[in-house]
Design goal:
InterPro entries: FAD-dep_OxRdtase_2_FAD-bd, FAD/NAD-bd_sf, Fum_R/Succ_DH_flav-like_C_sf, Fum_Rdtase/Succ_DH_flav-like_C, NadB, Succ_DH/fumarate_Rdtase_cat_sf. Its EC number is 1.4.3.16. By secondary structure, this protein is of the alpha+beta class. The chain has helices at residues 45-48, 98-107, 125-128, 143-153, 160-179, 212-225, 296-303, 342-346, 372-386, 400-406, 408-416, 473-483, 485-493, 516-540, 547-570, 580-601, and strands at 6-8, 11-18, 21-22, 26-27, 43-44, 81-83, 86-94, 113-116, 133-134, 194-195, 205-206, 230-233, 236-246, 249-259, 264-275, 308-309, 314-321, 350-352, 391-394, 426-435, 438-440, 452-454, 459-460, 625-628. The chain has three domains: 86-313 and 436-501, FAD/NAD(P)-binding domain, CATH 3.50.50.60; 320-430, Succinate dehydrogenase/fumarate reductase flavoprotein, catalytic domain (Flavocytochrome C3, Chain A, domain 1), CATH 3.90.700.10; 516-577 and 579-621, Fumarate reductase/succinate dehydrogenase flavoprotein-like, C-terminal domain (Methane Monooxygenase Hydroxylase, Chain G, domain 1), CATH 1.20.58.100. It is built from 16 helices and 24 strands. Strands 6, 7, 8, 12, 13, 14, 15 and 22 form an eight-stranded mixed sheet that branches. It is globular and about 65 Å long.
Length: 648
């Protein structure tokens, strides 16, 4: 067993630990190691998260339905309680992707539900998911085979019990979507058309052409529109979770949010909160994630004393569209990279360098069907050796009709820029795509914070291990959103809404008192700092890493954060002030530090984490990385809550 502690900015910022697994399922606390006097105890991944609350802690001071949204201004007050700028619900859901919506539809049968979404309801990672959902739906396939593929892709760091649960329950979750009106592609025999993607041994990917996520989102959003118990709060940015200390337990009571259209801070008090806020792709300059993916949920949970795990495992999708390789360049820089789905390689797409030399056989016997981490590193190696900006993915040798029917969205996008994918290869380059780590969750989506559940990319359930298998993300979101329902209902029924609780926490304020000139200066500087942070992360914490580069990143991020915060406070910014850009920056800093600290603690190369200083797999290091709650007394603005935690 090994333990390491990461230091940020000269003080103890995170307790980063590996703990030894039995196989890859059991996990135990490192004996004899304490963090700020907090007692560690034994637990397994699957059942132990619910025990976290028993641990002694220190006192820590484009959618067609988008126009039909119910909002707080159009729903009668009988649906939920409202007191000024405070809303009271049984359940609060943060995020409107597949995990948040699927959960909301179930818990709405038992109480009132607020769905808080940062932009338009359809603007989520789900909506951008092209490939599909993996599930065992073919007689020649098996749960055991899906499990094995998942575990191999995850470099044997997956939690076996979690993998079994997800692979077993997946088919039923697909059938539920179909019953709700989701339309997937069928073959000539009338059965679901099942595609195959990298890392899968069988055809098991259910899809709707190359727009699967959009179709699932459409079906779920339509169901939410028709549910009178669900209220959608669009353009509401979640700022911080509202938590208190009840003895050794941290308890979640809801969330503060900023209405980015009216600049009003709204407080949501609820019995149960589900975090389903997606990923953190925008800590990097190029990502397939939508602009809303700034790690808000992971940062909020960390500040609220939730346990975080496996943040070093950032998945770079091997094939995002390389705009500079297109015959007609886009007129403006994209906010997020255009994804070229894994299914293109699954359908026979071949990768070439710019000399039209096929290179994947040089790196892996599975060639283009190797897992994503292998393909991304192979492309990265080619680009560095040849000093080129992109490689080519060619599917033009396949029948034109098949290409256009399977990949209509990709074909249309490329054709707009002068490239016909039925005749020409597609220029591609890796881009940040998916965070395999996140808020540590048990088998029912529970966290160590009472009343707080997680599902989707924001969660770390143990399914993905060190690398996510293609099309397992939507599957995991569906399964865990459903599994979190019953414990949430049980918690809701055993809780009561405290109508006086709204005044327990200091309210965030918008910076009107600073004046427009100062505010614009701060936001302009924040935009520049954001680009600097992204540049540091890509240069030093990218696909291939080293200890020296990671330490450099840690130092540069610390300096950049200190410089930014000093600028803010010297210009009159207060601890409780909030603005969308500043709060996103705060979350990006928080998540970037979590990634770097976790990466520095892993002294091996496994899955998505590859370091030239420890290039081999080490059996003794086959352990999850865990970041425990620590005191925030000396921490930066990004790493602590805006309010003081009340003691219950």
């Amino acid at each position: 067993m090994a333990a390491s502690v990461a230091h940020v900015g000269g003080h103890l910022q995170y307790g980063v630990n590996f703990y030894k697994a039995k196989g890859y399922r059991k996990a135990v606390w490192v004996p004899g190691v304490t963090f700020h006097g907090c007692l560690q105890r034994e637990l397994s991944w699957s059942c132990g998260v619910s025990k976290f609350s028993q641990i002694h802690r220190c006192n820590f001071s484009q959618s067609p339905v988008s126009e039909n949204w119910k909002s707080c201004g159009t729903v009668t007050t009988s649906v939920y309680l409202r007191d000024g700028s405070t809303r009271y619900f049984d359940f609060t859901v943060i995020g409107s992707g597949v995990a948040g919506l699927r959960y909301a539809l179930e818990v709405a049968k038992h109480g009132t539900v607020a769905v808080i979404t940062k932009a338009e309801p359809h603007e989520s990672n789900t909506n951008y998911a092209q490939g599909g959902v993996s599930a065992v739906l073919c007689p020649s396939d098996s749960v055991e085979s899906h499990m094995q593929d998942t575990i191999v892709a995850g470099a044997y760091l997956c939690d076996e019990e979690t993998v079994k649960v997800v692979c077993t329950e997946g088919p039923d979750r697909i059938r539920e979507l179909i019953a709700m009106g989701a339309s997937f592609d069928h073959g000539e025999d009338g059965n679901l058309h099942l595609a195959r993607e990298g890392g899968h041994s069988h055809h098991r990917i259910v899809h709707a052409a190359d727009m699967t996520g959009r179709e699932i989102e459409r079906a779920l959003l339509q169901a939410v529109v028709n549910d009178p118990n669900i209220v959608m709060f669009k353009h509401h940015f979640a700022i911080d979770l509202l938590t208190s200390q009840d003895g050794s337990d941290t308890v979640c009571h809801g969330v503060d949010a900023l209405n980015t259209e009216t600049q009003e801070v709204v407080r949501f008090i609820s019995k149960v909160t589900l975090l389903a806020s997606g990923g953190v792709g925008h800590i990097y300059p190029s990502t397939t994630n939508p602009p809303v993916a700034t790690g808000d949920g992971m940062a909020m949970a960390h500040r609220a004393q939730a346990v975080i795990s496996n943040m070093e495992f950032v998945q770079f999708h091997p094939t995002a569209l390389a705009d500079e390789g297109l015959p007609i360049k886009p007129k403006k820089t994209r906010e997020n990279a255009f994804l070229i789905t894994e299914a293109v390689r699954g359908d026979g797409g071949i990768l070439y360098n710019l000399s039209m030399e096929r290179f994947m056989p040089l790196y892996d016997e599975r060639t283009e069907l190797a897992p994503r981490d292998v393909v991304a590193r192979s492309i990265d190696d080619q680009l560095k050796k040849r000093n080129e900006k992109y490689v080519l993915l060619d599917i033009s040798h396949k029948p034109r009709e098949k290409i256009l029917s399977h990949f209509p969205n990709i074909a249309t996008e490329c054709l707009q820029h002068g490239l016909d994918i039925t005749q020409q290869p597609i220029p591609v380059v890796p881009a940040a795509h998916y965070m395999c780590g996140g808020v540590r969750a048990g088998l029912q989506g529970e966290t160590n914070v009472r009343g707080l559940y997680v599902a989707g990319e924001v969660a770390c359930t143990g399914l993905h291990g060190a690398n996510r298998l293609a099309s397992n993300s939507l599957l995991e979101a569906l399964v865990f959103a459903r599994r979190a329902v019953q414990p949430s209902i049980d918690h809701m029924k055993s809780s009561s809404l405290d109508l006086s609780a709204s005044n327990l926490w200091t309210r965030p304020v918008v910076p009107k008192s600073l004046g427009s000139d100062v505010t614009h200066k701060i936001l302009r500087t924040t935009k520049e700092v954001r680009k600097e942070l992204q540049s540091v992360m890509w240069k030093y914490v990218g696909i291939v890493r080293s200890t020296t580069r990671l330490e450099t990143a840690e130092e540069k991020i610390g300096e950049l954060e200190a410089k930014w915060e000093t600028y803010l406070f010297e210009h009159g910014w207060q601890q409780t002030m909030v603005a969308l850009e500043a709060c996103e920056m705060r979350n990006l800093f928080c998540c970037a530090k979590l990634v770097v600290s976790s990466a520095l603690a892993r002294h091996e190369s496994r899955g998505l984490h590859y370091t030239i200083d420890f290039p081999n797999l080490e059996e003794s290091k086959r352990l999850p990385t865990v970041i425990f709650p620590t005191s925030h007394m000396m921490s930066t603005w990004s790493s602590r809550q805006l309010h003081q935690q009340p003691i219950c």
